[in-house]
Specification:
globular, Nuclear Transport Factor 2, Chain: A, five-stranded antiparallel sheet
Length: about 200
Amino acid sequence: MPKKTYFLPILLLGLFLYAPFSIATGPSPQAQLQATIDRILATLNVASKSDIVKKKQILMAIDQRFDYRAISRRTLATNWKKLNNAQRSRFVTAFSSLLKAAYYNKLKAYSGERVRIVSEKVEAKRAIIDTEVVSASQNIPIRYRMRLKNDQWLIYDVNVEGVSLVRNYRSSYRSIIDHEGFEGLMVRMEKKLASLQEQDAH
């Protein structure tokens, strides 16, 4: 499995150059991402809400900003083409659940970090938002790659300190599929998800 998993990308799950070809109308990717970040941080900072309510609201915010199918397709790369529709749906469901569980567990370590937008580059229906997560001890650069879909800017990759989520999982999952097949990968993912859910329960 990938070596790095951060709670920070989930803060969007984030902080973002001059765009010669930009979308003239509608909310910008930066604005939509910022709205999601603000929503998540606001939820985390409300002490009166139960953990169950906070988790539900945070995961809803994440679901609205991530394109899980695009992330899944890019992660499996050539292996995606070898799957039938049922297998693709199964992978997307498992992968999205795994990502959300991993990120939410990391989010529980939140201790007042701030998210600063650095720059935004928009070309047609693609955007790159560079951000920084600012804490007392360090600044962590995070880059979001987004695409416009039905008036919504959705994340299809997150790069933390130079490590791409998609490339990181792609390398790991390709190796597993090569040696254990698609079913072997699904078994591993389901075991990992169960472990993360168990951590969440404690």
